[in-house]
Design goal:
Bound molecules: adenosine-5'-diphosphate, alpha-D-glucopyranose
Shape: globular
Number of helices: 18
Strand content: 15-25%
Largest sheet: 9 strands, mixed
CATH class of the largest domain: Alpha Beta
Length: about 475
């Protein structure tokens, strides 16, 4: 049996702000349990819902030196769907209404504490990982610490580490003096070949330098981040480590996201009966959201964190033009105020055509995936993207920009060869996007049979974890030997 420990800042079903949580919560379920024991370690945030906290059991606790203090570290345990989760507890670090704070330094402190506590807790779990699989900047210090102070101890010697990049934009940067103080790492770790990055200390960079292997969540993103435009200042390092870097495309949980059994949607359907059944969900959503109730109207959905990553500048630029068309737009998301207000404004201006739902809701997200005809995701960059995979699964045709995982998972419609699962455009240009949306409108309104065949192909794609989980397994095998 090979032991793998995921360490991450979020994971379904305990805590989620985006796709990272979906991946951390679903991939371990789909790895072959006969050969791998994969467990997950998360912070025990006070904002985790009470019913999920009720599943956790106190295991043990200890005290750890951190930031010139001696701090309490509690360890709790829960088992969900056959996967064991560990939680690191210290309420002074993991309080607040959300996992991430608007004060970035607070997050640097929080996740430095988490990374050190996660490593320090391992000998007490009764589970020695062969590989620690770290996710994003919040766990970047783990490969660094593993290389540094923990090597002196027999328990840690030989443990390998993997750093998976879900989003290179977030790196955990702060001034060197503070990070040195916080982490207790010696001076020589803060040079440009280690944690230093453009005069600051960079936690993700530390992870990327010291991890034994690096992965990211699609092939195209693995290539893109070696270039300056997508590399976020680390493209040089990505090129230097390209031999240890690979892309493995994300999957989604096909049990959780299944139009045939989905508990959040009123009218269940599948790849055979969607022509009749799917539209009933649209009708119900139009009614619920106060849109014009008309089966024929093309409904376009967006479910997203509202940040510049997702291409909302393009949408803002052509929104008035788009709203002259015969379409409805349903948005679900929270995030930057400028985008929240932009959608609120258009909801006010085109009230029976646009519905802005500025909140977070698992139930509403499923309803949108199930009800819409098309799903818009014109991202500036997209490491993988799960929303378009959910849209494909629900027969909702994605309209995407050809970047990162969007490029790898959505095949552009080709009317001459009757191929394709969605619509796409190449440049980050608002009218190019509008051109794609209007092309989709023409097929939807004028060539319904063709449209339905796109849905047939979309629903026939397989982005369950099967293939990608096997790729992770191969990598684990190869690393452990
Ligand atoms: P990212 O991780 O960059 O946010 P992904 O497409 O990988 O993008 O994953 C986004 C996940 O978050 C999807 O599961 C999507 O359904 C969900 N999501 C985003 N915003 C909301 C929201 N407001 N309410 C419910 N789910 C949301
Ligand atoms: C990040 C990326 C997204 C990806 C997700 C899960 O949040 O923005 O593209 O799907 O992580 O890997």
């Amino acid at each position: 049996m090979k032991n793998i420990l995921f360490v991450a800042s979020e994971g379904v079903p305990f805590i989620k702000t985006g796709g990272l949580a979906d991946v951390v919560g679903s991939l371990p379920k789909y790895v072959d349990k006969e050969y791998f024991d994969i467990r997950v370690m998360l912070p025990k945030y006070t904002c985790i819902s009470q019913n999920m906290r009720d599943l956790m059991q106190y295991k043990t606790h200890f005290y750890m030196d951190f930031n010139w203090k001696n701090e309490y570290v509690g360890i709790l345990e829960a088992v969900v769907d056959g996967v064991t989760y560990y939680f690191i507890d210290n309420e002074s670090y993991f309080n607040g209404f959300k996992p991430y704070s608007s004060n970035f330094y607070e997050d640097i402190v929080k996740f430095s504490f988490f990374s050190k506590a996660a490593l320090s807790a391992m000998p007490l779990l009764g589970f020695r990982p062969d590989i620690i699989h770290c996710h994003d900047w919040q766990t970047g210090l783990i490969p660094v610490y593993l290389h540094e102070r923990f090597q002196g101890n027999d328990f840690y010697r030989g443990i390998k580490s993997i750093m998976t990049i879900h989003n290179l934009k977030f790196q955990g940067k702060w001034d060197i003096r503070s990070i040195k103080d916080l982490t207790g790492l010696p001076d020589f770790y803060f040079t440009p070949d280690k944690l230093e990055c453009y005069k600051d200390a960079n936690l993700l960079k530390g992870g990327l330098v010291f991890a034994d292997a690096i992965t990211t969540v699609s092939d195209t993103y693995a290539e893109e981040i070696k270039c300056a435009f997508y590399g976020e200042g680390l493209d040089g390092l990505m090129r230097a480590r390209s031999g240890d870097l690979r892309g493995i495309v994300n999957g989604i949980d096909y049990e959780e996201y299944n139009p045939e059994t989905d508990k959040y949607i009123e009218y269940k359907y599948n790849a055979v009966n969607f022509r009749k059944e799917k539209v009933k969900n649209k009708r119900a959503l139009q009614k619920e959201l106060g849109l014009v109730e008309d089966d024929r109207k093309m409904m376009i959905g967006i479910v997203s964190r509202l940040t510049d990553q997702k291409g909302f500048d393009l949408i803002a630029y052509v929104m008035d033009e788009l709203c002259q068309d015969d379409v409805q737009l349903v948005v679900l998301g929270t995030g930057e105020e400028q985008y929240e207000n932009m959608f609120r404004h258009f909801d006010w201006k085109y009230n029976n055509k646009v519905s802005a739902n500025i909140y977070y809701s698992e139930a509403m997200s499923h309803k949108i995936y199930a009800s819409c005809d098309a799903f818009l995701m014109p991202s500036l960059f997209e490491p993988c993207g799960l929303s378009q995979l959910m849209a494909l699964r629900y027969g909702t045709v994605p309209i995407v920009r050809e970047t990162g995982g969007l490029k790898d998972t959505v095949e552009a419609y080709n009317e001459y060869e009757s191929k394709g699962t969605g619509f796409s455009f190449c440049n980050y240009n608002a009218h190019e996007m509008l051109g794609s949306i209007r092309y989709a409108e023409r097929i939807y309104y004028d060539k319904k049979r063709e449209w339905n065949k796109i849905i047939d192909r979309a629903m026939a794609t397989d982005f369950s974890w099967g293939v990608s989980a096997r790729k992770y397994q191969e990598m684990y095998d190869w690393m452990i030997g």
